[in-house]
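Q: I'm a student working through a structural biology exercise. My instructor gave each of us a protein and asked us to get a predicted structure, then write a short paragraph describing it. Mine is Transmembrane protein. I'm not confident about reading structure output yet, so if you can add a plain explanation after the tokens, that would really help. Here is the sequence I was given:
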Amino acid sequence: MALIVYWYDFICFAIVAAAIVVSLWFLLRRERGCLGIDDTAHVSLLPLYRSKSLGSAQLWTSCWTRLHPGWLLFTRSTSFLSMAALLAWDILKWDASIFVYYTEWTFLLVIIYFAMGIAASVYGCLIHSKELALETGEDVVVEKVGDEFRQRLEVYGCFMQIIFQTSAGAVVLTDIVFWLVIVPFLSNTRFGLNTLMICMHTANAGFLLLETVLNSLPFPWFRMGYFVLWSCLYVIFQWIIHACGFTWWPYPFLELDKPWAPIWYLSMTIVHIPCYGAYAAIVKAKNSCFPYLFPNTFVNP
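A: Happy to help. First, here is the predicted structure for Transmembrane protein. I'll explain a few features afterward.
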């Protein structure tokens, strides 16, 4: 057994457990209604879209009114293929053991988001094309969608938004730790900087920011709880593999055999707030500034 537990490690366990409990409690209180949104309160971002599932339209419509849904499909497909190629390169170079790193977990999560986004965009393009074909005068004839399908679409959309918001916070945390901690202070044979690492820690933020500029998804603060749970899941994973015989820590600040470990764990827990807040500020800046800069083409989600 490679994991030796010291008395101060129980403080680390308590910090992670408290983070999980608080996140779950907060999410259970605030997440209600996710699947029962009153879609009639939204303004359609597609000029021709008149269906009742306007909330679902946020999955494939852009905040830029004149931008065809196909452009969002194109950017999501490009992002997905580029990131999948980088991840495949990473696995071929280091094998599947590379998933001991939080970077790969987050990178895969962003890829999953873009895959879900592609599916939503394809569906949105089909709806858009059908509406154009059935347009008669000022009204549009839209085929009614069954309640069961609408519910599935709402569940799909809820998961897609959760993954987007979790990915955003995780990408900020990943890149801050990499560029501000690992590269300057922890660079060694295992953390050696190379082209692949630079590409991965640039592409994850770059593609997600491009998606943010184009999409119309909301970014509520309370969903930071999913971001915290995601990180806690990774930490628990590290504890389990070390208990099973894994001998080294991918990140020194996760080590449990140091007396100052509780300070590191508490600091990493707190840093989730500014990481998520930084991305929330980007979304807020977009929704606040763009309507004034582009009043005729930008619609605040």
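A: Here are two points you could use in your paragraph. The longest helix spans residues 147-185. The chain has nine helices and two strands. It's a good idea to check both against the output above yourself.
Q: Great, thank you!
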